[in-house]
Amino acid sequence: MRAAVQFLWPWAGLAAAFLLAPVVFSSPTALTMESVMGIMIIFALSYNMLLGQTGLLSFGHAVYYGLGGFVAIHAMNAVIHDRLAVPVVVIPLVGGLAGLGFGILFGLVSTRRAGLVFSMISLGLGELVSSSSFILRGFFGGEEGVTTNRAKLAPLLGLKFGPQIQVYGLVAVCCFLCIAAMYALTRTPFGRISNAVRDNPERVQYIGYSARRIRLIAFSLSAFFAGVAGGLAAINFEIMNAQQLGAQQSGVVLLMTYIGGVDTFVGPILGAIIVTFLQINLSDLTSAWQLYFGLMFIAVVSFAPGGVAGLLFRHWEAARSGAWHRLAPAYAMVAPGLVAALIGVVMLIELGNRRLTDEGSPMTMFGVAIDPSSIAPWATALGLFAVGAAATRLLWPKVADAWALVDKGLQARGRA
C-alpha cells in the first residue's frame, strides 16, 4: 500500500498542477505561456530520450519537431478544405506519426555510429532540412510559413478549440500522457538496455544485442514525441515556419535539457518551464536576452553538471538529513558577493547593449536613471563585478567545506 502511494502521489501532483495552473494564472498571456510550456516539456523530454537515456547528442532535433508541425498543419488545412469530420485532438498524433516516419528515415543514416559522428550527422541533417525549407516553398511556405485556423475543424463534445483555455486543456492532456509514456519507457527492459548502450555499447554487443538497432529505436521514438510536440505547436500557434526546424530551435531544446539536468527524468521538465518562462518574459525586458541564456548554460555546465534538478535533489537530501544548518551559514557568507557580481554582470551587459544598439541613449536600471555614455555607471558595474567575484572566490571554500561535511554525513547515514 505504501509503495503504491509513493508511486501515485507524483502523478497526482502533476495532474493537480495541470488543473490548477489555468485557475491560478488565468490571464490570456499566462494561458499562452502555459500552453507553450506543455509543448516544450514534451519536446525536451523527447530530446532527453536521446541524450540522457541513450547518450546521443543531437544538434538537429528540431527537424522532427518542425516536420511534425508542418505535416500536422497541412493535415489541418486538408481537413478544412475537404470538410472532413476530423477533430483537432487527432492532429498531435498526425504530427507524431510524421516525426516517427522521418525519424526512421534519418535514423537509418545517423545511428550507425554514436558519439561525435552521430552529432555531426545530426547537425548536417538539420542544416539540410533547414536550407530545403527555402527551396520547397510549396510545403514549407517560404519565409511566411504555413497558416491554418484550428476553429474550422470539426468540434469534439462541443469543443471547437478556438479559445486558448481549450487549447491549453488539449496540451495538458497530451503532455500528461506523453510524460507518462516516456517515463514508462525508462522502466522497461528497452529503457535499461538503452542506458547500457549509453554507458558501454561494446558490452551490449558482447551479450548479443545490436547497439545500432537500439539507437535506431530510441531515435525513432524520440522523433515521434518531438513530432507530437510539433503537432501541438501547429495547433497552438496556427502557423509553422522555417525557424521552428532550424538550428536555433535545436539549440533551445539543448539548453532546456542541460539547464534542467540530463541525469534525471524531471530535469528536462524543469528546464522547459524555466527557459520558456524566461524566453517570454525576459525578451520583454531586454534585447540581449539570448546572451543571458548563453551565460546561464555556461554556468550550469561548469558549476552544476546535474542541472537545476540535480541541485534541488542534492539540497533536498541535505534538508532531509538535518544538515541544512551546516550549509546556511556558508551560503549567507557567499551570497552578498555573488549578488554583487551578478548585478555587475547585468549592468555591463545592459550598458554595452544600449551603447551599441541605441547610440548610448539614457536608460533606467534597477529604478535608477543611467547615462551609458558617462564613465560612472561603467566604473560602478566593473567595481561591483570585481569586488563581488573576488569575495565569492575567497569565501567559496567555506561552501565546499560545508558540502564535504554534508556528503560525509549522507554517506555514513547510507552505510548505517
Automatic annotation (TrEMBL):
Membrane topology per record: Multi-pass membrane protein
Main location: membrane
Keywords: Cell membrane, Membrane, Transmembrane, Transmembrane helix
Membrane keyword on record: yes
Annotated compartments: Cell membrane
Chain ranges passing through the membrane: 36-56, 63-80, 86-109, 116-140, 165-185, 216-235, 255-280, 292-316, 328-349
Pfam family for this entry, one: BPD_transp_2
A single MF term (Gene Ontology): branched-chain amino acid transmembrane transporter activity
InterPro entries per the UniProt record, alphabetical: ABC_transp_permease, LivM-like
Superkingdom of the source species: Bacteria
Listed GO CC annotations: plasma membrane
Keyword Manganese attached: no
PANTHER family, sorted: ABC TRANSPORTER ATP-BINDING PROTEIN (PTHR30482:SF17), HIGH-AFFINITY BRANCHED-CHAIN AMINO ACID TRANSPORT SYSTEM PERMEASE (PTHR30482)
Protein name according to UniProt: Amino acid/amide ABC transporter membrane protein 2 (HAAT family)
Species: Roseiarcus fermentans
